[in-house]
Specification:
alpha/beta, Rossmann fold, four-stranded parallel sheet, 43% helix
Length: 337
Amino acid sequence: MVSMKDIAEACGVSVASVSKALNNHTDIGEETRQLIRRTAKEMGYFPNSVARALKTNRSYNLGVLFTDEANSGLTHDYFASVLESFKETAEKNDYDITFVNRNRERRRKMTYLEHVRYRGFDGVVIACVDFEDPEVAQLVASDIPVVTIDHIFNNRIAVMSDNVKGMQSLLRYIYSCGHRRIAYIHGHPSSVTGSRLSSFYKTAEELGLKVPDEYVLEAGYRDTDGAAAATQQLLALPCPPTCILYPDDFACLGGMNMLREKGLRIPEDISIAGYDGLRIGRHMDPKLTTLKQDTQKLGGYAAEKLISLIEHPKTSVPEILVVEGEVYEGRSVGNIG
């Protein structure tokens, strides 16, 4: 078994330097750090996680708290992409990730905070949960390092998609294609929904668009049945929209099915647009017009900030990182200008 002493001899440095390089200490030159880490990898060195935890008083394990309203778990394409980026960045820094849960099947149910302490997580990233849940608030208010995704707590670091600018860009693109009767089926109430809906109204006002109340409906994220029902409601209006925006790309599937059931072609008879930029949208026929969120940056930034908060608590300050997306034009919005 390769030891730190073996690595030190191979690199011509002290065992202390090897320890610092492998534990990401800052008081060692970057060139020396890279040499040591590269040599350790080539020699097949694997640190003993138990010994490292005892020495550093850290578990090198990050908790992930995620519960969406549809209970879709890792089939949730958007979050799965964010998590993959989070995981990649965590692993580059020698951290593992584990999901946080309430352990409902135990005789005594644990709260989120209790589970985090029980597992000894060094920190937690929170995404796509009910942020009004008292257990979530309890965890955020604790001394556990926490980073949130797409929700702002005053005393915590948050990584946010720019939902305001995203909706603005998407609506302006649809407007540029000649559409003036644009409906919006938004998700259930949340900070994300609030930002997108406010931006929708504000941008419509800037463009001089009139948005009748009956053009704005609600359906759950990833809720194909709800999206289909809302689509049917819009089609029944005396003056139906020429374009419908959906809560997300997945919900668009329900809308597309309803439109085709009514004998309508996309985009020849009616246009649609999603939000998120999931892979599934690029395989739809026609390819879905959507706002593509930068999941690579969202997950990567969240991991970087959480690890920095764990390793450098005295120099980390609450901040909000905003990540912009971009319009993916696809082919589901027709030009009627």
